[in-house]
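Batch 3, record 17
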Amino acid sequence: MSILVGKDTKVLFQGITGSAGGFHADQCIAYGTSVVAGVTPGRGGQTWTGASTKKNVPVYDTVKDAVKQTGANTSCVFVPPPAAADSILEAIDAGVELVIAITEGIPVADMLRVRRVLDAQTGPKKTRLIGPNCPGVITPGAACKIGIMPGHIHRPGRIGVLSRSGTLTYEAVFQLTSLGLGQSTAVGIGGDPINGTDFVDLLQLFNEDPETDGVIMIGEIGGTAEEAGAEYIKKHFKKPVAGFIAGTTAPPGKRMGHAGAIISGGKGTAAAKIAAMTEAGVKMAPTPTHMGETLKSLLK
Amino acid sequence: MNIHEYQGKQIYARYGVPHPKGIPAFSAEEARKAAETLIAETGNEVVVVKAQIHAGGRGKAGGVKVAKGAAAAEEKAKALLGTTLVTKQTGPEGKKVNRLYIEQGLNLEGARELYFSMLIDRETRRVTAIASAAGGVDIEEVAETHPEKILKVVLDPAVGFAAHYARQLGFGLELKGTAMSEFVSLCSKLYDLFLEEDCSMLEVNPLVITGDNHVICLDAKVNFDENASFRHPEWDALRDPEEEEPTETEAKEAGLSYVKLDGNIGCLVNGAGLAMSTMDIIQHYGGSPANFLDVGGGATKDQVTKAFRIILTDPNVKGIFVNIFGGIMKCDTIAEGVIAAAKELGLKVPVVCRLEGTNVEKGREILANSGIAVMPAANMAEGAQKIVELAKSGAAKG
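Prediction for the assembled complex:
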């Protein structure tokens, strides 16, 4: 039944009373997502109303209150960078199962702390973080969209999409939909150097998901997450994978927008990632326009 | 964000990190005065005149001169100021020297030069400290040829740079006595500095163990995490505009992410990944991108106009490829921005525009009814092929 989010997902929006948070909460509701609560410290007791859907959502002061009152199991973080890491930590503390952080520009020192808390979790109920600096997660078959992706380009189906880049995720999804291939779940893991969930974690979930027949994996220069993903694919992944790596023409030493997208010390080049993925049996798309076709060519 | 060595050492001073005395100088006269002050304070005639540029490898490129006496320091300063240093890290165009740092000369007889750095390690998702007995030289070369000479510890943020981590490095570096205890204390201070100042990288190369077994940081290479600028208003004063590409600074101020490249096709894209792959696809079809430009998720009409202006400051640009897949970004906003820019700037180069996503119909309609010659493209590949053709014919016409 897809991965991460589905029919049982009940979402709270941290930062729902902000302009971006409110706009996207409204868009998510319009898509069909069950948005049950908002959290804005100091605004507890108020009601937020979606501009287009007119849906009323109760606002709470704390995530704990929101979870207790509404049974929310997923949080979407739209809080601006200075307070975003604290908001993620608050959601972890409240025991929210899945936290999806959209916020771009969180200081890496703050993410070090968040990462430490995530890594230190014990017991059966661990919080998973997606992002930050990501478009979010969508499962079209359950009409569940949590994030900023344009909902209308998606179709229910059996292909998984995982990507470090937001707009390249849309690109891949749009191509799949145009080719008549729907998506089980599409996930953006975000472009920051320290994030919550990496390719390997998601590949494991897609591998075990009976409703996913194949995946498109989209990486970019910087770091070694793609190489680690390739290693996992080679050893464990049972389904066809099409791939693409952005940044073949990026010069070393120059940060390409994302805090994580930089070739430094000869590491993180597109060539090395393409080689690792090809070696793992991933079929690489020659251009970003060919991601959908490449995946389609692998299906029986 | 990079800062100069002398600025890094001013930060060292605040954290009690041992380093030689020094004074920045912006002219030869200031260099002489600085040297006089240092000589009076230390009783040592020898000073070092160091070029301040945002690149390593200065020593090898002739950017560090030893002088005996203030008059000699003034002369060395005169010779260095205004020259262009080409180091391994500057690229062939080099960097012009506008600032100097005059530092007390140290007795390095019997001294050892080590390497020390800390960085955000993406693989471990923690801060990693790196040290090597082979300091003072190109560490990347050491890492390649003698990886066993590179020592590493991964620091747990819950405990910080605990003494046992520091000792682990210290024993590897064969430190003893005062040097070991000073090194342990230094690691803890540098870690505090790293986190509190929001560094993404901090490098001390060389870290010197003096002949009488004391630890001293001879260099400071500090790199800040730009995401944390909201809590560091003091960074504005540390920026050196002469070290930055002016258009890149202008773009940053407008909330755009822009990197200038050598080609002739301007790119205006939303999203870093899509912007990179737009460069890639232009090259794939035989063209050459003039820039990376990400207008971000929430760009306004005004920002799109600014983006066009920035792209057009590059005289090499023979065509512009607008490639937008709207998420947060609405296609009608982009279309209005394209039209406003075309009217305001009197666009003379061809523009190919590919729009997809939120409000796409509205965006395409606005472009079609604008009376401006913007060529539509159905997808990225088609758009890239079109703009490569147009730029080629434009370039042929001169």
